[in-house]
Design goal:
five-stranded mixed β-sheet; about 40% helix; alpha/beta; D-Maltodextrin-Binding Protein, domain 2; single chain; 2 domains; six-stranded mixed β-sheet
Length: about 280
């Protein structure tokens, strides 16, 4: 009788273990949202498939974390509400970590970091009055504030294009909107680049990494990056995976995978492939 009880207990334990394993396997199916309109971070290629730095990186991270991942396209302006509504499990869409976003969702550690600034038509007269160099709005605030005042003077009365609901829009609305410049917000960076090419805006404000793709394309042949390179502060703390606040296990899995991809040079190689520079975060 004792043997039978032990056998039944063992069978029960095995059954519970198998059930738990099956549940864990089911939980490891992860749907990742990307914008699909932010080259070279993420975009739809001529074959209609998603491509770009984050598509390559997502495949690498999911393999490291043993996650069965599906990547889907989602319009930028609804990307966070759809995450919290559980339409997908994670966001990889060139999204910077900011205090405001942290009120709604959580983030992994950053997997890429780079400067932001302005792009204008080649030879734009106002560009010569702006400072050059790199400025951090957090660690070098005094110097950055002086640079911003010079920018404001140079672009007074101009029209600036920016993508809606981004850290770039936050910067433009904080420092340039109103008495300085007219701000026009667009659904995608592609749309404001087309208006710059058509002369409907004087300059656009976005990440330098996005400008690289535009300048390399036919519409960007007469455009150039102007003024200073800015980061930190209102522009965020680097690009990371966005997750729901209660998805601690998934955040931990992605964090470990990102740390490993930084350590072995994978992120360096992928950023050099897509951006032509190393955008591996320093920390």
């Amino acid at each position: 009788m004792r043997f039978v009880k032990l056998a039944l207990a063992a069978a029960t334990a095995v059954g519970l273990a198998l059930t738990a394993s099956a549940a864990m396997a089911q939980q490891r199916k992860v749907k990742i949202a990307t914008e699909g309109a932010y080259a070279p971070w993420n975009f739809v290629n001529s074959a209609g498939k998603l491509e770009g730095f984050e598509i390559d990186l997502a495949a690498d991270l999911c393999k490291r974390a043993n996650l069965d991942c599906e990547i889907v396209a989602q319009d930028w302006d609804g990307i966070i509400p759809s995450l919290t509504a559980k339409k997908y499990d994670a966001i990889m869409a060139g999204m910077n970590i900011t205090d405001k976003r942290l009120e709604v969702i959580s983030f992994t550690q950053a997997y890429a970091s780079g400067p932001h600034g302005m792009m204008a038509a080649k030879g734009a007269k106002f560009a010569s009055a702006m400072p050059t160099g790199r400025f951090n709005l957090t660690t070098g605030k005094a110097e950055a504030d002086k640079a911003i005042e010079q920018i404001k003077a140079a672009v007074k009365g101009k029209i600036v294009g920016v993508q809606v609901s981004t850290t770039n829009a936050n910067f433009v609305n904080e420092y340039l909107k109103g008495s300085v410049a007219e701000v026009r917000e667009y659904k995608t960076t592609e749309q404001h680049d087309l208006d710059l090419a058509a002369g409907r805006v004087d300059f656009v404000f976005a990440a330098h990494s996005a400008f690289a793709a535009t300048i390399a394309s036919p519409i960007g042949k007469d455009m150039e990056i102007v003024g200073p390179a800015l980061n930190g502060g209102i522009l965020g703390r680097g690009v990371a995976v966005g997750l729901r606040k209660d998805d601690n296990d998934l955040r931990e899995a992605f964090d470990k995978a990102i740390a490993a991809a930084k350590a072995d040079g994978t992120i360096k190689a992928l950023t050099q492939k897509w951006f032509k520079i190393d955008m591996t975060p320093l920390s």
